[in-house]
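Recap from last week: sequence in, structure out.
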Amino acid sequence: MPSGPLAHICFLVEDLDKAIEDWTKILGVLDPAQLEQRLVRYDDFDGAEAGGGGDDRMAWATFVNPGGAEIQLMAPGKDTHLGKRLAKHGEHVHHVCFTTEDPAEASRRLAEQGIEVLGGVNQDPEWDWQQWTWVSPKSAHGTLVEVAKPYRAVDGQWVDGMAADAKDAG
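Predicted structure tokens:
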């Protein structure tokens, strides 16, 4: 898990393997620490929100960086919502992610401040510990912002960051 609340910057990419190759070179020069841990990679992942119809199948990978923000790459299926977006707009930053122990409370507080929050809090059907919500690009001046529970990479997989931290402390 990154050391601060800015968890990752996510890019929509056409070719995941090429993007990994290029970002490995970039990080090798600019942030070699992100290459020290095993890449977290899922080659067939349903990124649809909870209850979604599987319209966001993708492959994705994240360079793990315990000391700062991570680089995440998403390569959506061509006929998915994100695949159509990629075809229309080309490769680009999809979102930035901040972590918090309580995304629902953060969402409520953001809304109180007049920030547009998109929908409710989502629950991942495969990772019951993971929850997230979104801040509208309208409020974030053009960038989609994810607000998620903390996570940590263990052996190339995501695990509950809060449980892992509690286990490490105990």
